[in-house]
Design goal:
The chain is mainly alpha-helical. It is 39% helix and 8% strand. The strands form two sheets. It has a two-stranded antiparallel sheet. A two-stranded parallel ribbon has the order 3-4.
Length: 144
């Protein structure tokens, strides 16, 4: 996504994207703790919507839920639904998805799933119930 934006594109899946922050998994929590110190004022504006996009697995969902909860008084943080739709679409074309990494914390709430329609939720739950996951890297610039 970064290279795509650096090449002059401003939309990903039809959404205008002004800034992309790479969080390195759980590292995004630490990044946001320092957000006020290092981010440009336009990025910190409380009316901004921040979209989250990560692997479709228990850890990725948990990271989103922790991030959204921890900073909900400051920013609206939502899953980037079009990216997850695209991930699911591509995953349907793959015969076997990777196995869920061992020792993932499976303690998630319904917060993440509440952002999607029922059909998408069922598809995501089917992936997780089979102990599989969809890495965000399933998408590439040709998909945007």
């Amino acid at each position: 996504m970064r290279n795509y934006l650096l090449n002059g594109y401003t939309e990903i899946f039809g959404a205008e994207i002004g800034t992309l922050i790479y969080g390195a998994g759980k590292g995004i929590i630490r990044s946001f703790q320092d957000f006020d110190l290092c981010a440009e004022p336009y990025m910190k504006h409380p009316k901004n919507t921040i979209y989250y996009f990560g692997d479709l697995d228990y850890e990725g969902i948990g990271i989103y839920e922790n991030l959204a909860e921890k900073f909900r008084s400051r920013w609206k943080i939502l899953p980037f639904v079009p990216a997850y739709q695209a991930m699911l679409g591509k995953a349907e074309q793959i015969t076997e998805l990777p196995e869920t990494k061992e020792h993932q914390n499976r303690n998630i709430s319904t917060q993440f799933f509440s952002c999607f329609d029922e059909i998408m939720v069922k598809k995501m739950e089917a992936v997780l119930d089979k102990d599989r996951y969809i890495p965000q890297e399933i998408l590439n610039t040709a998909d945007f």
